[in-house]
Amino acid sequence: MLSHLLKENAKVTVSTGNVLNVSDLRKKAGQKPTDELVDSLRSTFAEAEVIESDGSQLVTRKNNDLQEKMKEHTRADIKIGAKIFLNHYSETCLTEAVEKLFETLNVSYLDNLILAFHPRAAETNGSEEINGEVKEGVIEWAVGSDNAVGNLRKLWSILEQYSTDKKIGQLGIADLDVDSLKDLFEGSSVHPSIAQINLAACCVVPPQLQEYCLKNEIQLLTHSDPQELLPRHVLDDLELSAYRAAWTTRYQVHIKCRGVLAAKGFIVSLSRK
C-alpha cells in the first residue's frame, strides 16, 4: 500500500491532516481508537503525497483542509488539545512529537497536552487476583518495567519546560495508579492538572485515586484508548512490518464558543526495526 513509496533507510512521519473532511470516516462515528487511527492512515495512504527532507520522509494526504480549518478562526477562539502515546522511554521522541504537533497545526501554543507513557504495553482486565479472589478497581501501570517512574519524571520535565515557556497550558497524564501519580505530582514543579483513567481496564474508579485527585485539584477524566494505539499486528496489516511506531499523537481543535469540533487528526512517527 505505502511501502513501495518509502525509502529503506528513511525515517517516516505520517500526518493524516483533518480526518473530519474524509466522508468515509464521518460515517464511522464511535469507532474504537485503534480502528479510527487505522482507517485514517489507510485514507492518507490512498492519497499519499511523500515529501523527502534530510533523510526523512513526510507522508501527508493530498486533499487536506487542516490549514484552512485552522485559519477560519482566530487562535483565541479555538481550543487545541492533544494526546501523545509513547510506548518506550525516549526524551528525543517526546520532544519530536511535541514539535511536530506545533509544526503541523502551525501554532505556538497548545491548550492542553496529555502524555500516555506505557513502557510495557500489556493487556489488563482491570482487576487484580488476590488469594483466588478478584479485586475490582485496581489500576496497574508499567508492570514489569524497570525505573518507570524515574523515566516518567524525565519525560515530564520536558513537558514542564514547554509549560514554563507558555507553550502548553494544562499538562495531563494517563493511566497512572495512585502511588505513581503521587510520585509524579510531588516530584514536579508543574503539576499534572488532568489525570485520565481507562474504565475498560478499571471498571471502578479507585477511591484512593479519586480522593487524591480531588484533594490536589486534578481533573479526573475517563478514556477508552488502549495502552498501545498502534500495535505490531496492525502495522503488519498495513504492510508496514519493517517499521515500529516510535510515537503517535492525536489532536483535536474545538471552537470555544460553540464547543464544536473543527478539526481532528493523527501524526505517527515510524522507524525501521
Structural class by helix and strand composition:
alpha/beta
Q: How large is the radius of gyration?
A: 19 Å
What is the spatial order of strands in the main beta sheet? 2-3-1-12-11-4-5-8-9-10
Largest sheet: 10 strands, mixed
**How much helical structure, as a percent, in the residues?**
25-40%
| Total DSSP helices | 8
Helix/strand order: EHHEEHEHEEEHEHEHEHEE
The rough form would be described as globular
Percent strand = 25-35%
Distance between the termini: 19 Å
**Overall strand count:** 12
> What is the residue-averaged pLDDT?
87
Poorly predicted runs: 121-137
Descriptive report:
The protein has 273 residues and is an alpha/beta fold. It is 29% helix and 31% strand. The protein has helices at 23-26, 33-46, 66-71, 91-105, 148-164, 178-186, 207-215, 232-237, and strands spanning 11-15, 48-53, 56-61, 78-86, 110-117, 127-130, 133-136, 168-174, 194-198, 219-223, 243-255, 260-272. The strands form 2 sheets. Strands 2-3-1-12-11-4-5-8-9-10 form a 10-stranded mixed β-sheet. Strand 11 and strand 12 form a beta hairpin.
